[in-house]
Specification:
The protein is an alpha+beta fold. The chain contains 15 helices and 46 strands. The strands form ten sheets. Strands 19, 20, 23, 24, 25, 26, 29, 30, 31 and 32 form a ten-stranded mixed β-sheet that branches.
């Protein structure tokens, strides 16, 4: 009996030990159970959890099968065997060739650094997409009727009969234009503005949906409604239609698998029918008009009578450009109710939703047939308090609804969106009631990754504004603004904000997709267009090649590699990176790039009547030379990661020549830079353009310049992202905090003080007297200046990754107290799990709480000079076996730790 008890205890102990190590969050191509993957060697990632410190993975085993349950993979196709490795992200599949449209199942088991093994994880799956054009049995279809100038949204439908019990069904859908699909009257999926925006003539995404639950034995119907969207709608500077084509078309293919193993396919072909319905016109810039009197109720159900419908035409469109969707789709997110409903001094009926956002308004109404309601959208009110839309330029941004008079009606747009906080309502029959109106936000479905809070409410509002600027402008592509007649993928905006974006949300797939369009639309010369997708190119012209904008081709791939540790982004973009650097070299003479048109330090501080030289004008060619060097540096970095030794040698030699030419042209022997501006010194120091012996004096000049402007910024789009980083790097963190906390123009907190809920395009979009900047360019939701968020996470909170341990495999936690803050808390969800840095000043005590995820290590810098007074968990750090004291460094005690939660304290 005693032996039995001991055996049971031993078994229990083993089970407990095993339970301490678990594998979770299984992802394929960075997605949870995706059903349309076109990477022929998909990659797997997972996270490890444990209830003890210093857990590292030492080996893993992956099984892939053609079937499976929650508990196990069956019909194993590939078993990796036990692989000695601490890698747990982006592990490539190495089994037999994968088949188009086939679903696969996988699970993972790991071993830790004590030799313990986890149990097998739950089973995850992925499904391959349609890998070849020949996999598409469907035909492109266009309306069979003659479209009117108004271009009402076409409806397509088809009925079909199913005689067997259904096991599964996958629908593959795309369009020229935008689409919403329905089966048996129910909406397919929860994505909006599909198929998204790409360089359509080269890359057109399709989406895959599991529609098993929408089908039934017997009669069924499938339908789709289309909008003009980016494809043929008015888009660009001088809004131009038909940039990709004049047609509007649908491609639909659904594979049904029955319980007996047989299959059936329903496709778009000449058996479909077409008509129009309630959506009479829909444009991205102008809004959507819906006439409920023309709606065809039940048009996507099998019981609908479509005798009056037209047939369809077959379109001969290229299927070789079709690609699976790589990034998260646009979805609906937060909803807002009115915070007040009021009349302006002009007597306008206006609803204030309290937050500048992107999306649309949904409302309920009862009225007579023919009653027409118009919603106009605006970001701000003018000085007297009236509705203000002048800054929208030609974008009407109006939705119009015509009632059918059949009781309570609900209206919601489909193929447009608006940037707004305020909505003017005209023609509404009756009183405006808060319960009848809802504002719905739309943006790409990126997972929130980071949070930052501190003891300063103004900075917390700034962080709020940064996040909402990202939400509003990360709508399938990184747009510059969401409200006026632009909303384009401006490259300069994206590159300056990309690292901040990665702290707020998971933008890995978002940027990986968009960067492929950067490469696709890059000119053969190597020049990069100003906007991606490129919709401002005119015949015979190449608008592009601006420094700081075209450098998106090198900066964003490198930032994504640092944030996520994904080599494939560098592999995919390397040719584009190299072409851009080679373009700059081709335009240079004696390694000096001083030609071409450049935006320069866009929207820098300037004075209209500048008699004293107060405007902070930085030479565009000086800036170009700095970014020429920076892009070359990043190309060298990428070459080192990818093992391209010849390129490392060549471009390292080129870099030395670029910097030498810069010094000769722009810097005096004493270190004075010819453009004596904040941006000039920031770029010189950030990109290491100066020799070591001239750097500190340059930092001193920078600090003096800032003081000369009363601790105000004078930088524009290109200098602003780096200014606080440079100040901290060279010992002027106190000056960086003064800039951060400045609340008069120009500064980050000036818009906050003026009531902003997003980041403005201009430092003074609204002047202190309530007047506006020029209507030609004055967006109140423009994320570029939100790039300060990167410094707040990396320096104030202190969360960063080592370049040789990217993706937070090797973490740095180095808080920089200052600014009068009494606490700062930042959390960041990496591919490995959560990293936290929470610091607090409590009287004479400095407290630092740190969390490090399993399978990573961290170097932690605690602001103290004496390791003997440093405690962790109430015990001296010097005696802790799982914490290694490296030593003092620049006012910090440096320690290295493994995974776990740590509570450091120091009595100052």
């Amino acid at each position: 009996m005693k032996k039995i008890i001991l055996m049971l205890v031993a078994i229990h102990f083993c089970l407990v030990c095993q339970a301490q190590l678990k594998v979770q969050s299984l992802l394929t191509e960075d997605l949870h159970n995706p059903i349309s993957v076109d990477a022929t060697t998909p990659r797997f990632s997972w996270q490890i959890t444990a209830d003890k410190r210093n857990v590292m993975q030492t080996a893993y085993e992956i099984k892939v099968g053609s079937s499976g349950s929650n508990a196990s993979v069956k019909d194993v196709l590939w078993d990796s065997g036990k692989i000695p490795s601490d890698e747990s992200v982006y592990i490539p599949y190495k089994g037999s060739e994968l088949k188009s449209g086939k679903r696969y199942f996988w699970q993972i088991k790991v071993w830790d650094n004590t030799g313990k093994a986890s149990g097998w994880s739950e089973v995850a799956y992925w499904q391959m997409g349609l890998l070849s054009p020949t996999d598409w049995q469907a035909k492109w279809i266009t309306p069979g009727f003659e479209e009117s100038i108004e271009q009402p949204s076409p409806l397509f439908r088809k009925e079909f009969h199913l005689t067997k019990k259904i096991r599964s069904a996958i629908a593959y859908i795309t369009a020229h234009g935008l689409y919403e699909a329905r089966i048996n009257g129910q909406r397919v999926g929860d994505a909006y503005l599909t198929p998204g925006w790409t360089s359509y003539n080269k890359r057109l995404q399709y989406q895959a949906y599991d529609v098993t639950g929408l089908l039934q034995e017997g009669n069924n119907a499938v339908g789709a409604v289309l909008g003009s969207g980016w494809y043929r709608g008015h888009v660009g500077y001088d809004p131009t239609p038909n940039l990709y084509g004049k047609d509007i078309a649908l491609l639909f293919q659904m594979k049904i698998t029955y319980t007996d193993g047989s299959t059936e396919t329903v496709v778009s072909d000449d058996s479909w029918k077409s008509s129009t319905g309630g959506i009479r016109n829909s444009e991205i810039y102008y809004g959507e008009t819906i006439d409920a009197r023309k709606e065809q109720a039940g048009w996507s159900t099998a019981s609908f009578d479509d005798k009056g419908w037209s047939g369809v035409k077959i379109g001969d469109f290229d299927k070789s450009v079709l690609i699976a969707t790589q990034n998260e789709p646009v979805k609906q997110h937060e909803v807002f109710k009115p915070v007040r409903i009021f009349k302006t001094p002009k007597g306008e009926q206006v609803i204030d939703f309290g937050q500048n956002m992107v999306g649309w308004v949904k409302f309920k109404v009862i009225g007579k047939a023919g009653d027409t309601i118009r919603l106009s959208h605006a970001e701000v009110l003018d000085k007297p308090g009236d509705f203000y839309t002048a800054n929208l330029r030609s974008a009407r941004s109006q939705d119009m609804y015509v009632l059918n008079g059949k009781g309570e009606e609900t209206f919601e747009p489909h193929f447009t969106w608006h940037g707004f906080r305020y909505v003017k309502v005209e023609g509404y029959p009756g009183e405006l009631k808060p319960e009848d109106f809802t504002a719905i936000t739309l943006y790409s479905d990126m997972k929130v990754m980071g949070t930052f809070t501190c003891s300063n409410p103004m900075i917390n509002q700034l962080q709020h504004n940064i996040q909402w600027g990202q939400k509003g402008n990360f709508l399938d592509v990184p747009t510059d603004c969401p409200q006026r007649d632009e909303r384009l993928g401006w490259t300069g905006d994206a590159q300056v904000f990309s690292r901040t974006a990665s702290y707020n949300m998971n933008v890995h797939n978002f940027f990986a997709k968009w960067l492929k369009d950067v490469a696709a639309d890059q000119y053969s010369s190597g020049s990069v267009p100003h906007v991606i997708p490129d919709v401002i190119k005119r015949k015979g012209s190449e608008p592009g090649g601006s420094t700081g904008w075209a450098d998106v081709s090198t900066i964003v791939p490198w930032n994504m590699y640092l944030a996520y540790g994904d080599k494939r982004i560098l592999q995919d973009q390397y040719s584009s990176m190299k072409k851009w650097v080679d373009y700059m070299q081709s335009k240079s003479k004696h390694n000096l790039w001083n030609t071409g048109d450049h935006f320069g330090d866009w929207l820098f501080y300037s004075v209209n009547d500048d008699n004293d030289g107060e405007s902070a004008i930085t030479s565009k060619y000086l800036i170009a030379q700095c970014f020429y060097a920076y892009s070359t540096t990043l190309l060298i970095n990428a070459a080192q990661v990818l093992g391209k030794t010849d390129d490392i040698t060549y471009y390292t030699e080129l870099l030395a020549k670029i910097k030498k030419a810069y010094l000769k042209e722009y810097v005096t022997p004493n270190g004075l830079i010819s453009s004596d501006t904040q941006t000039a010194y920031v770029l010189a120091l950030q990109f290491d353009m100066l020799p070591e012996d001239l750097r500190q004096q340059a930092a001193e000049r920078l600090a003096k310049n800032i003081k000369g402007y009363g601790n105000h910024l004078t930088t524009g789009f290109l200098g602003t992202p780096y200014i606080c980083h440079v100040l901290s790097r060279f010992g002027y963190t106190d000056v960086a905090y003064k800039l951060l906390l400045q609340d008069t123009y120009p500064s980050w907190l000036y818009p906050v003080k003026m009531g902003a809920t997003t980041i403005w395009e201009r430092w003074d979009g609204i002047r202190p007297d309530g007047s506006f900047e020029a209507v030609s360019m004055n967006s109140f939701n423009h994320y570029s200046y939100g790039a300060i968020g990167d410094w707040m996470y990396r320096v104030v909170a202190g969360i960063d990754t080592k370049a040789d341990g990217p993706g937070y495999k090797q973490i740095v936690i180095k808080p920089n107290p200052g600014g009068g803050f009494t606490y700062v808390s930042a959390d960041y969800e990496t591919n490995y799990g959560k990293v936290s840095s929470h610091w607090k000043i409590d009287g004479d005590n400095f407290l630092l709480d740190v969390e490090v995820p399993a399978n990573t290590t961290a170097t932690v810098y605690i602001p103290t000079k004496d390791s003997n007074t440093l405690m962790e968990g109430g015990k001296p750090v010097s005696g802790a076996g799982d914490i290694k004291v490296v030593g003092p460094e620049g006012g910090y005690v440096v320690v290295t730790v493994g995974s776990g939660v740590y509570h450091f304290s120091d009595a100052r």
